[in-house]
User: Fold PrsW family intramembrane metalloprotease from Actinomadura rubteroloni.
Amino acid sequence: MAQVDPKAVLEGRVPGRPPVLLILGLFGCSVCALLALALDALSGGSGFWAGLVLAMLPIPLLVALVLTLDRMEPEPPRALAFSFMWGAGVAVFGALVLNTLGLLYVTVPIFGETRGHFVSATFGAPVIEETLKGAVLFGLLWLRRNEIDGFADGVIYAGMVGLGFAMMENVTYYMRAYEDGGAQALQAVFVLRGLVVPFSHPLFTSMTGLGVAYAATHRRGQLAAPLLGLLGAMLLHGLWNGSTAFGGTGLAIVYVLDLFVLLVIIGIVSVERRATVRRIETYLPAYAATGLVTPQDVRMLRSLRSRRHARRWAKMVGGPFAARAMSDYQLAATELSLLHKRAERGVAEPAWFSARRDALLDLMDLARQAFLRTPPRRPAAPPWAPGGPSGFLPQDPSPYG
Assistant:
């Protein structure tokens, strides 16, 4: 049997080396990030290094929190990395150039020094920054729309690009705070931007992510939904920047508004996850004749907790290789149910649907066979099917065997 790359099947891509365009894209993003850091370093003195360290410090934790939304159907790591680097590179450097030009040649000449900075921060910066951050999401919609299976995916990609942007922007804020007020001012700004509102940029851009996700999974709203999402991102961003003119009261009001929006987004993702579970229970029983799935297996697939227990059982009876095979089986089954969601909504081209379905079924079969071929450490029935049947118990060969 030919070798199969499970990651390539799950991500819906051709197996092999990373594409040249991806490598060039990451290179370009990195160059932009380095240019932005170089400009900070040239103007920041010793405060630059303090700002850089503090800006990077919470990023692993924040990325981990964003990825908790990505557990049932993980996104390709290369796409997540590119989104983060786009935010940290192209979006930051582009915003730096355009915001500076806007201040020098538009807002300050028209409104004066003080009011010009306020107008730029409240109206100019949100338009420029959210457009640049959202560009990578529009690119995914155009080039990799099949990778976006729902609102959670749009929020995750938006969160990654927002975290990249916020990290680089915080370098500048921390550096300036240190230079203007020393360690005490730096501490205050770090508490505000790094601890109290670390998700502001991801939250703003999540509006664009929701619009892009809707367009990717529905036949209607292909243009209106992403544009409305982008407008929502600009409005949230502008409200936050503009609230600084009203002191602590203004910030508190907008903070409560942003917190409410965050809770709504979490609610949307939770509802969608339950809908994904229902689709697993709806669509996978149709494949019982293949021998790859039984009603008991469907019950195992319908929750993260039961999946985790299944992987633990697989590792106990067959070692790490069996646990990896179980994980591939679970992810392929989830992708199969999401594929049917696309078909149900009329956004799956028939030839692509058939090819994708067969590839996922083949992966489920290979994962199952790899598991069954692994010498068990002790005979044991799956805990979710103690009396059988289950695709993970020896049985008659399936049509895919």
About this structure: The chain has a mean pLDDT of 89. The radius of gyration is 24 Å. The chain has two domains: 18-274, 291-401.
